[in-house]
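Blackboard transcription, Thursday session:
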Amino acid sequence: MTAKRNTWQREAVREALNESEGFVSAQALHSHLRDGGSPIGLATVYRALADLATQGEADSLQQEGESLYRACTPGSHHHHLICRECGLTVEIRADEVEHWAKAVAAEHGFTEPNHIVDVFGLCAKCSRA
Amino acid sequence: MTAKRNTWQREAVREALNESEGFVSAQALHSHLRDGGSPIGLATVYRALADLATQGEADSLQQEGESLYRACTPGSHHHHLICRECGLTVEIRADEVEHWAKAVAAEHGFTEPNHIVDVFGLCAKCSRA
DNA sequence: AACACTGTTGATAACGAATCTCATTACGGT
DNA sequence: ACCGTAATGAGATTCGTTATCAACAGTGTT
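(Written on the board underneath:)
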């Protein structure tokens, strides 16, 4: 009976992730938690984030050689519109793109298609500055 | 008169990149060059690849914490269909996606939209195995 | 062709993100 | 309360990438 246990650390990471606007790095999240008085370890934050991503409770993307994470609505496939400046993130559904990806893959004989689709830009607020 | 100089090292990297099928890491390219008898340094390979990417002669993507590079047709915006197994890569044009990305960005007040779009899958050959 | 100027190279050190180790802790069922 | 074992965490380790800096080599000039 290998069972997954519930620890306050995992919950702390989940909460901290939910409080964060936009994508954050594991290290940033760890610092934030420590600043908040939590004695949580860095390795644990990495593990918790990896788990959350696996379970579909968090999305991740790679930027400048590091992984960034963000809480997301579980069970729904979606993509992100991200502000390069402030990190503000909007979830976007894009059925057209899903179909396109699948079609393009099939067209070239590829199977089991995955895809990475992210849009970066400057949000309205940052555009004015 | 700050001028960029032509060295055999840069040319060697460009050639090695053109010979490679699919995306390769800087380290892999360096090993390949050394195996071929070239005494080129690792740092130089990194610099050359970064330059090529900046000049639009190479595309790069991040996978599992490392940057991969590939020669590409300069001046043309395109995306990639990549085999997870063997690395075979196909350049794909996708005007629909370009428009979609621009539209979605504008819709949410975002300006200067960039986007990352890559499709992964198993190519016909690898699908059979 | 010799020269000087300066961009480039490369061995190595340094850095940083992420993972591994392993003794200790603590969750969860009995 | 007890036990089995998953989870934790401080530190060491791995690994990709970048910085350092003295030696080198393109490039334009004389």
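Lecturer's comment: Residues 1, 3, 5-7, 25-27, 42-43, 46, 65-67 of chain A lie near DNA strand C (CB under 10 Å from a C1').
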